[in-house]
Design goal:
alpha/beta, four-stranded parallel sheet, 4 strands, 14% strand
Length: 187
C-alpha cells in the first residue's frame, strides 16, 4: 500500500505529470530535482514518484534566500565557480526537474548587475550542457513553478487563489491529469 506524504492531492498529481508525462522517467534514470525549501511538498512527491518508477532521485535543494546570501557575501572567485554537483548532474544524469519556488521574486533587485553577470557566466556551462544534451535527447529536462506567497504577490492574487490558478493551469485538479496532457500532445 502506497503511503501519501502530502496534504494536497494536487501536489502528488503534479509530480505524476512531471515524472510520467513531462520527463518520462524510466527505471534507472538518474534525476536531479532542483528547488528551494519552499517547494518541499512537491520535492517529496517527486522523490517518491521517481522511486516508484524505478528512477534514482537526487535532491539539489537551495535555501529560499541562498542567492541573496551568495551575492551579499561571496568573493569574485566564488561567483566565478561553476557549481560542481549541478554540472555533474547536467553532464551525466538522464533527467532534471527544476521547480521555480522563490519566496521573494524581487530579492536580487538591489544586487549589482555586474555581479549578477559574473554569476551567470559561471552558470553558462550548465545551461550549455542542458541544451546540448536536450537536443540530442540524452537529457530530459522540465521546469515548473510551485505556488509561493512571493509569486502570489507578484501576480496580485491571494496565495490560495494563486495556488488554485497554478493547479488549474496544470490541470492537476482533474482526476487524471497525465491522461489530459497526453491527449493534448496527440492533438
Amino acid at each position: 500500500q502506497k503511503e501519501s506524504f502530502l496534504a494536497d492531492p494536487r501536489v502528488e498529481r503534479l509530480a505524476n505529470v512531471l515524472v510520467d508525462h513531462s520527463a518520462q522517467i524510466k527505471p534507472g534514470d538518474r534525476v536531479a530535482i532542483e528547488a528551494t525549501t519552499a517547494a518541499e511538498a512537491l520535492v517529496r512527491a517527486l522523490y517518491a514518484a521517481i522511486l516508484e518508477r524505478g528512477g534514482n532521485p537526487y535532491v539539489l535543494l537551495d535555501l529560499t534566500d541562498q542567492d541573496e546570501i551568495l551575492f551579499a557575501v561571496a568573493k569574485d572567485d566564488q561567483l566565478d565557480t561553476t557549481p560542481p554537483f549541478r554540472m555533474l548532474a547536467y553532464d551525466q544524469f538522464e533527467s532534471r526537474i527544476r521547480i521555480h519556488s522563490a519566496t521573494n521574486p524581487r530579492a536580487l533587485s538591489g544586487v549589482d548587475p555586474a555581479r549578477q553577470r559574473r554569476r551567470q557566466k559561471s552558470l553558462a556551462p550548465i545551461l550549455e550542457a542542458q541544451m546540448r544534451r536536450g537536443a540530442d535527447r540524452s537529457f530530459k529536462w522540465v521546469t515548473t513553478l510551485f505556488p509561493t506567497e512571493g509569486f502570489a504577490v507578484e501576480a496580485g492574487m491571494s496565495f490560495r487563489n494563486f495556488e488554485d490558478f497554478v493547479y488549474r493551469a496544470c490541470h492537476v485538479d482533474e482526476a487524471d491529469p497525465v491522461a489530459f496532457w497526453e491527449k493534448v500532445e496527440t492533438k
